[in-house]
């Protein structure tokens, strides 16, 4: 079975996630929980509050209860697994944690979230210091928020909430949208190679700041080509394709091909077309057939910063 960690981190700050409230953040700020990348550490680096940690750390509790942090997912979705990472917290990690999830419409305030109906998705579980703990989640319901509970207090470096995007697309009724976008429910379901970076980066929000924020494959030596398959937000007709090689200066593909998939049927969208390094490319597509997936073939290998597939839901 494919590990859940290959799915997008729905809480990631660069996907629009936010830590909207916490019971306490006396030693280290709550916003660190959803930062991209591995937590860093510089020993014997002190502020007025003590050793500086790249994570969220609460004070030592002297009263009953436990600490918590409320996280708004950047992309609502079905949660497949959670990673609680206590990296660098060795004498000050929480011995136990649990996680709840909620589906709340609109733009709730922290006080409204605290009153929401929460569903336990990870029971009270033991943590270790300076270690990642992975928890699988079996729940098909889409959620918009999660609550990390630490018992009773301490520090957590990162919280990763991996899952399948399932946003409400009704706001796009009658409008066009990027059918491939992670934020709209797109998902990379297959990929030939992810040696340097994750393929779902190509459908992430915003622009890639450097090549590690795109998708990059190893160098091929077998005469074939690399590819990925994107499940669209819904069955739709694609009118405009954007293939962005920004930041890929010496490792951009030489060409790209786009093929739509609708069940067993293949729909040619873009014939093999030359690409330039470090360039956003835009191609108008002339077909009128709805598709559910798009296969992106790069020739022979290399990297893409972003793929955008604009159109209408069928």
TrEMBL record:
InterPro entries given in the database record: Allantoicase, Allantoicase_dom, Galactose-bd-like_sf
Pathway of action: Nitrogen metabolism; (S)-allantoin degradation; (S)-ureidoglycolate from allantoate (aminidohydrolase route): step 1/1
Single GO molecular function: allantoicase activity
Assigned protein family: Belongs to the allantoicase family.
GO terms of biological process kind: allantoin catabolic process; purine nucleobase metabolic process
Name of the protein this chain belongs to: Probable allantoicase
EC number, as in UniProt: 3.5.3.4
Pfam family, one: Allantoicase
Catalysed reaction, written as an equation: allantoate + H2O = (S)-ureidoglycolate + urea
């Amino acid at each position: 079975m494919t590990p859940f960690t290959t799915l997008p981190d729905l809480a990631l700050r660069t996907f629009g996630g936010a830590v909207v409230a916490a019971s306490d953040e006396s030693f280290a700020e709550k916003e660190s929980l959803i930062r991209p990348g591995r937590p860093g550490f510089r020993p014997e680096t002190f502020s007025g509050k003590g050793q500086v940690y790249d994570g969220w750390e609460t004070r030592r509790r002297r009263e009953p209860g436990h600490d918590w942090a409320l996280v708004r997912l950047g992309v609502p979705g079905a949660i497949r697994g959670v990673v609680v990472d206590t990296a660098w917290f060795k004498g000050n990690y929480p011995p136990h944690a649990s996680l709840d999830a909620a589906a709340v419409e609109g733009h709730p305030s922290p006080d409204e979230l605290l009153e929401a109906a929460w569903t336990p998705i990870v029971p009270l579980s033991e943590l270790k210091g300076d270690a990642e703990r992975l928890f699988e989640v079996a729940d098909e319901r889409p959620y918009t928020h999660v609550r990390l509970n630490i018992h009773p207090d301490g520090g957590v470096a990162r919280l990763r909430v991996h899952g399948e995007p399932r946003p409400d697309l009704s706001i796009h009724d009658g409008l066009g949208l990027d059918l491939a976008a992670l934020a709209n429910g797109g998902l990379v379901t297959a990929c030939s190679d992810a040696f340097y970076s994750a393929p779902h980066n190509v459908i992430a929000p915003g622009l890639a700041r450097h090549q590690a924020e795109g998708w990059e494959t190893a160098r091929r030596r077998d005469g074939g080509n690399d590819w990925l398959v994107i499940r669209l937000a819904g069955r739709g007709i694609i009118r405009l394709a954007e293939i962005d090689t920004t930041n890929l200066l010496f490792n951009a593909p030489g060409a790209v091909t786009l093929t739509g998939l609708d069940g067993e049927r293949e729909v040619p969208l873009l014939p093999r077309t030359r690409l330039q390094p470090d360039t956003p490319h835009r191609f108008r597509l002339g077909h009128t057939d709805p598709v559910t997936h798009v296969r992106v073939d790069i020739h022979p290998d290399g990297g893409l910063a972003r793929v955008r597939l604009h159109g209408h839901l069928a």
